[in-house]
Amino acid sequence: MLNRVLRVVIWTVSALTAVAYFTLAIRHILGRGPAGPEERALLDLAGRMARGQAPYVESAVGGSMTALPGLPFLLTPFVDPVHPQAVLARIAALMFSTLAVGLVILVARLESESWTMAAASGAFACAGLAMVGGTPGAASAMSLMLVLALGGMLALRQGRGVWGALGAAVCVTLGLAVHPLALWFAIATAFYLAFENRPRLITFTLATGALVAGGYVLLSQWLGPWFNFAAWDAPAQAVSWQPGPLLHYVGDVLLGRLSVLVLPAVLTFALPTAPWRGPGGMWVAAGMASLLAGAVATQSTWGSTDALGAMAVLLALVGPISIQRVTRHLAAWPGSSRLGGQGVVLAALALQFIAFIAGARGFAGLS
Description:
367 residues; 17 helices; 0% strand
């Protein structure tokens, strides 16, 4: 009876969380507020492409936030060349965010075999994007990168032989043209394959290396020398040692708002099998990489909302899966019951919703 009540509560809160996220996103899009630094970088690049000008010039990248060409290239046919508006970029970002949440739900269902877990994971992704990933509905290339990264890892998970590794390599390479965070997913995929399947690791590494090298040469020739500065030098120059944001990231974000998702992931390291082993281990590897990416991003003067948003989405996937793995292991002990383990999983998911609600002043629009 209690498990049934918890399921109803989780489904209800999950639906309300998704509605709240998309309501806030649509409100921001229709409100047409001023563009943020990343939005201005994306729109400036798309506008220059639409006018047939060199996308990267010294005046466009000197000392300001830069953007990679992936998302602006997709927006170019639709933007006003003279006065590109943020609304279109925001709509595109919301569409890609929706696809990313859909992939989280799909993967969670695949790994947990539970639609309740999948619904909770999707809701956690929405809440995480809203609470630590920036303003809902704001234009960001991170959402498209997440779709490509998650899609590539899903292709690796479901594909057989070299074809899955090749599909992952193509998606990761495309992601690297959209947002630098895709590099962390490439590292996570290679780390997973190093333990799980060495032949596929060789295929993935060689294919990714060839595609990235060839793509970089082509982009450098097409976009000019200032592309190299925008892709490498500008982000590196924005990094400086800042202990305050790092402590906030660990203490407030990880051990505060996302604590119920983080702690079970940590506990899986005590299980007999390493958490990154097995068919679903790639998601744990990606979650570990996203945690490191979030820590590194806190040291950038450009801000870390993209990295925190990606980290929250991965934890929304890894957290519930880890909770289920730990409780299943404990339920296998003498005197334990599978039904009791299911109740613990549902209770943990409900506790994470409470943690989100407790810190949701901005998310819920409360003052």
